[in-house]
């Protein structure tokens, strides 16, 4: 039995995980790009399916490995866990596929919000911080996940563009998006230089706002989303010639992706699912695989986006510590992390 995207059954208490363990299979394999996203309990769940008993029961694992490593940064325990699981792991690292990837330069550009956008962000932050504190006090951290995710979502939306937050007061304010203004400045410069640009955003509504600005600037583009029965390419005919994302192609031929610049409008994911590192590495010129690529991440100053970058770096150590016994210690998401994300700037 081969389980692809195995991180979807990392919670052993779900029906899917229980049913999976009931299937009679002599050999079992799990394929995943994120064996550990939030805490080491996810590793235990996968190993309990693959090789029951290797890490003991859940309580023993928490006492012997998870708590000492996550809470106390216990290096000997981390190394012992890595030695125990490594014989059962096959890992393809980024270094091993470096020959297949173009040279990449990553640039984080921090953007200061204008007064109107900053005021909306602070109002939303205060409101959501209070709601999260009340929910955690009443129900605990685990049972407050929905409220926590909603708070993080709204703050990230304001960082991208206040219009993404569907509130009448925001609509009346007419506050501009500093990130969208900066993005259009960059795109117009790059298109004038004949560059091709690939834009990423988790919010389809943000893509719609970018579409409006591209159309107004006369820049042709292609949009790809997951809407509809299957992902499909949607070509928008906009006056102004070749677009920043795809070159023109004769009818009947598929467009070839030719990025030499990538823009992450909102590269951050939620706290419990930060997204796989390296998403910006995958698209590359198929006929010129060695062409250099520049990745720009637009991050708003003094907001949750800056704090999430730090939190993601720390969470990355969770997986690194598992695969490399000499790596730094992992850290879990805690109430203190939430305070870091939601507290005053």
Please characterize this protein's 3D structure.
With 345 residues, the chain is α/β, with parallel strands linked by helices. It folds into 3 domains: 2-95, Tandem AAA-ATPase domain (Rossmann fold), CATH 3.40.50.10810; 98-108 and 176-300; 113-175 and 304-342. The chain contains 11 helices and 8 strands. The strands form 3 sheets. Strands 3-8-7-4 form a 4-stranded parallel beta sheet, sandwiched between helices. Helix 1 links the parallel strand 1 (2-4) and strand 2 (29-31). Helix 3 packs across helix 4 and helix 10 (304-323) runs antiparallel to helix 11 (335-342). The longest helix has 25 residues, at 115-139. It is globular and about 60 Å long. The model is unreliable at 230-259, 267-279 and 325-332 (pLDDT under 50).
Please sum up the structure shown.
With 345 residues, the chain is an alpha/beta fold. The chain has helices spanning 15-22, 41-50, 58-72, 75-85, 115-139, 145-160, 168-173, 178-192, 204-217, 304-323, 335-342; strands at residues 2-4, 29-31, 104-111, 197-200, 221-225, 232-236, 261-264, 293-300.
